[in-house]
């Protein structure tokens, strides 16, 4: 076969392609460095990090047998609070070093952060944005405060975000193909990938992993095409999205003591949502928390919101849904999708009694895309590329923020370690106890993972004076408590202060019940 003859035009195209691919690889490399460099410079901070690391380490150690791969454990007790996928990944990372250390515990979050950056670029491309616009949106996402901080911690939410983002990208890939969602069944592989991503998201954090399905339904309803939703969810697809979580709950319930299913589903799903058994907040919580979490780019959101909202007023046209998104109608469709992506989770979690800023991380890519999209709309829907001068200014600002955040991770956070790390407390407890001795934690659930992880000591959570009496009578003599609780327990127990930790309102006290005189009333 004769070689392809090069022309000036083909040379120019190849140069542009190589340049674009080089920039894409540079973005990937920068994201890897940004999220993974120095992961082990600080200890794991309570409450979540040492708890998750302790669970993953018990899993990695194999001390609970093959069943321990399904039924998670904390302090050798069955753990029903979260599904297992994050802990499987952290345990796998820990096999390399022989222990789930700080790096292994945080690595799933860090790599998920990289995946979210690249997923944002992919979604921008599906929206027919200029490549540079996609890279800019990815940079805004990566450097938003809550996302940058969480992606360098042992947290579930960035991993959840990565799987939800994959499902959203596959939905948009179906939507932008000829025929749109109405022809989705012509692409069973894409439907399978979308539902597999939702199934993985549910294995990270439970039913909230299926929230993108509600986003898709609201968007299609807004488009006047809700009937097309049925094409997205054939019966077989539920085996990929719902079955993984259902099978895990069934298997773990079979291995666990009675009540596991009630705790895993009833308490940790319905009670958290409706009763706010954990992190109860007022309904307007996100009105102030979300702007704080998305700094410094919160300042750009109002103007972007106005531009995107105006674009939604383009009349939906189902017949043109599969056309490229650079025309005005399809640009309006993308604006409606962005707002559906943002507003559905925002309303959902605002209605929930339990709230945390972390819960909204899956909408951060949409916020970043909305900012760039809003800037692009200022030039007209046919451009979808912000004014180059503004884009360069934002890229420079994002680079400066990234440098500051990385410097903070390297130099500022280690200075906070003495006050934030539970390692000194756990090591002191280990020094005062025998290997098999149990330590009581009085109203200190945030430390229930830290003591086993850093001190290799079993703990017993105590929440009342009567429980404290039973503990010192039957199990152990050392109790860790807040300094303010010492007077309360001394009304019932004769306690000797062994050691104090931290200072001010965060001061903790390790106390020992006096042997032979354990209770004030003389009870044994």
Rg value: 26 Å
- The assigned structural class equals alpha/beta
What is the number of independent domains? 2
Counting DSSP E segments of at least 2 residues, the number of strands comes to 7
Portion in helices: 55-70%
From the spread of the alpha carbons, the general shape counts as: globular
Contiguous helical run count: 22
Structure write-up:
- The protein has 2 domains: 9-411, no CATH class; 423-513, D-Maltodextrin-Binding Protein, domain 2.
- Strands 4-3-5-7-6 form a 5-stranded mixed β-sheet, sandwiched between helices. A two-stranded antiparallel sheet has the order 1-2.
- Helix 2 crosses helix 4 (102-126), helix 15 packs across helix 16 and helix 15 (301-311) packs across helix 17 (364-377).
- It is built from 22 helices and 7 strands.
- It is globular, with a radius of gyration of 26 Å.
- It has helices at residues 8-36, 48-61, 85-97, 102-126, 131-143, 145-150, 157-176, 188-205, 211-222, 229-232, 238-241, 243-255, 260-274, 285-293, 301-311, 328-351, 364-377, 388-420, 423-431, 450-455, 465-474, 486-490, and strands at 73-74, 77-78, 438-442, 458-462, 478-482, 495-501, 508-513.
- With 524 residues, it is α/β, with parallel strands linked by helices.
- Helix content is 59%, strand content 6%.
- Strand 1 (73-74) and strand 2 (77-78) form a beta hairpin.
